[in-house]
Amino acid sequence: MTTRSALFTNANLVDPEAGTTRGDSWLLVRDGLIADHGRGEAPGADAEVIDLGGASLLPGLVDAHVHATALSADLGSVSDRSPSYVAAYAARSLTDMLHRGFTTVRDVGGGDHGLADAIADGLFDGPRLLFGGKALSQTGGHGDFRPRGRHGRDAHGCCPGAGLVCDGPIEFRRAAREQLRTGAHHVKIMLSGGVASPTDRIDSTQSADDEIRAVVEEAEAANRYVTGHAYTARAVNRGLRLGVRCIEHGNLIDESSVGLFVDNDAYLVPTLVTYRELSRQGARNGLPPESQAKVDTVLTRGLDALRLAHEAGVNLVFGTDLLGAMQAHQNEEFAIRAQVQPAPDVLRAATGTAARLLGLEGRIGTLRPGAHADLIAVEGDPLADVSVLADPEHHLRLVMRDGVVRHTRNTASQR
Q: Is residue 12 part of a domain?
């Protein structure tokens, strides 16, 4: 598909930054960028006219916690598949994400430069992919997916799948440099136990202080940042004090944690929908029994943590962390968050705030002229009711990335 000029007319322009919806509006796209927008009669332009008939036009969505290669909730089983099979699965997974309205995603374990390059070169249609490569984990940590009876690892420290096993600051430093060498947008480190890993406890702390510092130093030297998997306040707080810029999950944080987030201008990426789906259908999607027992520990506390962080003014970013067939529920995170957050705040988590975390402020998640023309059209006003984004099958009409319409759908109202 080639980039072209397009003029959207009869649109309700939804600006998440300003928190406004402006009816009877137009927006001009040229050379893959937003050129201009306004209200009333559209200007004459040598462009394809797309009449939205009163639908809402807003920036494309960002999911800052995906695992494109996670074809099963049994993450260790990925190693039993051919790399070409995993790549084919990831291509379909990423295309599906784009068709749900996500024009940018951040892969925090498994996705690599090959997938990002394939999208950039047009080998398949997907969202802009910001990858971290393999997540760094201590032996027996959340990135070590070996069952108890399996010993040894390959020459690269993989055990294998989305994680890279390291022990000691030298190994962690080398592993961080290796991810950065491939062009990683960030480096992920495991700071606590997790659900999908078979041999650790949720409430454990992982990675020693000197190991964390080594990774932070390497990321900062490369003008990148570290994001940390963590649940408990103890694990989260230690990571934030040592320079970790972003925390994934954080279901078990407390008042001391939110103070550190605010003081350090750090980011939190809750992923609530994955625990709901793991509870509902994890077993039939490959979640091992030892992992199933962990789900309830984090499921019941997730909304409380989100409410606490929201009320304290923490930088909150949209993420889902869904595995295998459960990825189909990606948009439902919007409805879950709406239980404790106003619609404009939920929408900003998937647009402007996400853009700041990703270092793309002013380029994605915005309607500013000069930004990438990453846009979606939906029936309804997500600033008034963000749940319209939770049901793309019935509300999403169009997806544009970099000025090219990538997907259209006849919505229920049009049928």
A: yes
**Which residue, chain included where needed, has tokens 């930088």?**
315
Q: Give the whole-angstrom CA distance, residue 10 versus residue 136.
A: 49
Close Cβ partners of 14 (under 8 Å, ≥ 6 residues apart): 20, 21, 56, 57, 58, 347, 381, 382, 383
For position 192, which CATH number holds?
Answer: 3.20.20.140
pTM for this model (two decimals): 0.92
Query: What CATH number is attached to the domain comprising 10?
Result: 2.30.40.10
Residue 1 counted as domain residue: no
Pairing of strands 226-232, 187-190: parallel
- Residue span of the structural domain in which 328 resides: 61-357
How far is Cα 66 from Cα 71, in angstroms, rounded to an integer?
12
What's the number of domains the chain is made of?
Answer: 2
Residue 33 located in a structural domain? yes
Residue 379 lies in a domain: yes
Cα(406)–Cα(153) distance, integer angstroms: 41
Token pair, residue 221, equals 């030297």
Q: Identify whether the C-beta of residue 118 lies closer than 8 Å to the C-beta of residue 88.
A: no
- Count the residues in the chain: 415
Closest-CA residue to 380 (of 367, 396, 393): 396
Distances (CA, A) of 400 to 56, 249, 396: 14, 29, 12
Per residue of the chain (415 residues), what is the pLDDT tens digit?
Answer: 455 799 999 999 999 999 999 999 999 999 999 999 999 888 887 899 999 999 999 999 999 999 999 988 777 777 778 899 999 999 999 999 999 999 999 999 999 999 999 999 999 999 999 999 999 999 887 777 665 555 455 444 343 457 899 999 999 999 999 999 999 999 999 999 877 666 667 788 889 999 999 999 999 999 999 999 999 999 999 999 999 999 999 999 999 999 999 999 999 999 999 988 888 876 676 676 766 666 777 778 899 999 999 999 999 999 999 999 999 999 999 999 999 999 999 999 999 999 999 999 999 999 999 999 999 999 999 999 999 999 999 999 999 999 999 999 875 444 3
Instruction: Assess contact for 378 and 388: CB atoms under 8 A.
Output: yes
Q: Is 276:327 a contact under the CB 8 Å cutoff?
A: no
Give yes or no: residues 339 and 373 share one domain: no
Q: DSSP labels for 365-411?
A: SS--TTSB--EEEESS-TTT-GGGGG-HHHHEEEEEETTEEEEE---
Q: Of the candidates 186, 179, 185, 205, which has an alpha carbon nearest to the alpha carbon of residue 194? A: 205
